[in-house]
Amino acid sequence: MTLTTAFLTTAAVLVVLAIAVLYRAVKGPTMQDRVIAVNVLGTNTVVILALLAVALDSESFLDIALVYALLNFLMAVAISKFTVKRGDVI
Amino acid sequence: MADHTHDPPPGGALLVPVGESVTLRQTVAYTMEIAAAEEISEVHFVSPVAWHDVGDVELAVRERTQSLLDRVSVWAEEDAPADAPTIHTAVIGAEEYLFSPDDYADILARYADERGIKRIIVDPEYSPGGNVPLLRPMEVALAVRGFDVIEAPASRPVRRSRLTRPGGIAQFGLLFGISFLFYQLLGGFVIVTGDSFDFFYELITGTITAGLVAGALYTVTLSNRIRLRTLGKQLLRLGLYVPYLVYEIIKSNILITTIILHPKLPIEPRMTRVRSAVWGGPALTTLGNSITLTPGTLTVRTEGQDLYVHSLFQSARDGVADGALERAVRFVFYGRRAAAIPTPRERGDYVELQGPNAESEPDAGAEADVESEPDAETEPVEEEPK
Amino acid sequence: MNEIRLGAIFVLLAGGVFFTFVSAVGVIRLPDVYTRAHTASQTDTLGAGLVVAAVVLAYGVETEVIKALLLLVFIFITNPTAAHAVGRAAYEEGIEPWTKGDERR
């Protein structure tokens, strides 16, 4: 097995796992569950992008992965920050 | 709260935390207005101070605080009504290390309780301990402790973001350097490998970009004073800490893997609370993140030095109670001397909030209302209007 | 030398896939938000870290390796922080942690 096939196979398996995690994103039941699921999915996406950068020999994928990692983090923090119903103070 | 509570003064009393802020003058005026309207008999202006070094009290800060208080009491007397209330000023918190809004709220609450004060007037522009979005602002922390918190209706002379804090040349320089390096990194370091055109192109665009970033954000990020020697030492010790952390992560990941893949799913999740013996935002962040990274434990919430840790099984809880990570973080931030402090369990700073060993909360404060909501889970969060 | 590197890459990839698999199982199988946040922050981070480490090894000494390393650092810093933010949000919502004997949700 060459290196390229190994990386592509890994990416394919990760895609399948990401789809499996989608179950939790759909089912919930709470908002936080969905955010967790989408965050895991996003991390998988970042890893897949990094794998594709090697397998397809296109470095720009790494830049995209970097930006995606930061966006993914921002997404999780922003949603948790702005969906919480505060108590009686503020 | 405090068992030595005095009787409240007959005419009522007001507590006003003061610090350097653009709307301080208006806050003082508003306070005296209230005092006149309601015939308040005592007004306390207190200035919480944060020394940046534990035990190393800085004279300059002390003098600055005292002159601020002097200014405040002069203003207050100018605005004072005919039957003037007694004006007290005080510096508080000098013996403690304050870093988060919760800490400030704590010492203010103690001061107020000792004097039977129930009402606090806050300056809208004064946010001690910073206004870090992940921390609770001081006003909220005070309100949770049962005080009547009033925000002075001060109009801001210049609309200024509450995130910003004074930043100096060191902050600007460091942020500029980091931004410039990051820019070159995304450009694949053509500045080093390319020809002379590339060098000047990358140099000019990089300088402009990093300058924009640093100019816009140097008052927001890196808000603490930067001391390069300490920073260097800390980075060096961080280099020792990371391999240890990675080892811990891998070790406990294998444990958690067996538990997740176990057909019976043998988990005993429980919420615990640890009062950690680390001080300062970066150290506490490092500890919280390290606890979260080590499988089996998850930092759910921080309140001052209290970490609320959710743990998945007993051995993970024991790890937190024995404080190996805490000791390592102290080592990174304060050096080897600080590492040898008793473990959280020995200090009595470790409390289980759920399960058979659960202890009832001695100070039923903020966490009580959160824990006793039975059906909060069914709330449809998505439908909140925004 | 090259064989060793190749072998290390395969091992890292396999480990990464395994831990990502465990985290997926955890997110689907565990009973409540907090326990799921555990796997999201930890097992998933290790899985992603191992795979990106394989990517780093595959690049060897090119400049891209710095980007991959940076990606590794980002993942290790942002993942637990995100999990903490989610856990905190859940706690402030008032969601009670699941304890043994409760119903799954």
Model description:
With 90 residues, chain A is an all-alpha fold. Chain A has one domain. Chain A is built from three helices and no strands. The model of chain A has no long low-confidence stretch (mean pLDDT 83). In chain B, 46% of the residues lie in helices and 13% in strands. In chain B, α4 links the parallel β4 (119-122) and β5 (148-151). Chain B is flat, with a radius of gyration of 25 Å. Chain B starts with 12 loop residues before the first strand and ends in a 15-residue tail after the last helix. Chain C has one domain. Chain C is built from four helices and no strands. Chain C starts with a helix and ends in a 12-residue tail after the last helix. Chains in contact: A-B, A-C, B-C.
Q: Topology, pairings included?
A:
The complex is a heterotrimer of chains A (90), B (386) and C (105).
Chain A: H1 3-27, H2 31-55, H3 60-83
Helix pairs in contact in A: 1-2, 2-3
Chain B: E1 13-17, H1 24-38, E2 42-48, H2 59-79, E3 86-92, H3 101-114, E4 119-122, H4 138-144, E5 148-151, H5 169-186, H6 190-193, H7 196-217, H8 228-261, E6 270-275, H9 281-293, E7 297-303, E8 306-311, H10 314-322, H11 324-334, H12 344-347, E9 350-352, H13 366-371
Parallel strand pairs in B: 1-2, 1-4, 2-3, 4-5
Antiparallel strand pairs in B: 6-8, 6-9, 7-8
Chain C: H1 2-29, H2 33-41, H3 43-59, H4 64-93
Helix pairs in contact in C: 1-2, 1-3, 2-4, 3-4
In short:
The complex is a heterotrimer of chains A (90), B (386) and C (105). Chain B has 386 residues and is of the alpha/beta class. In chain B, 46% of the residues lie in helices and 13% in strands.
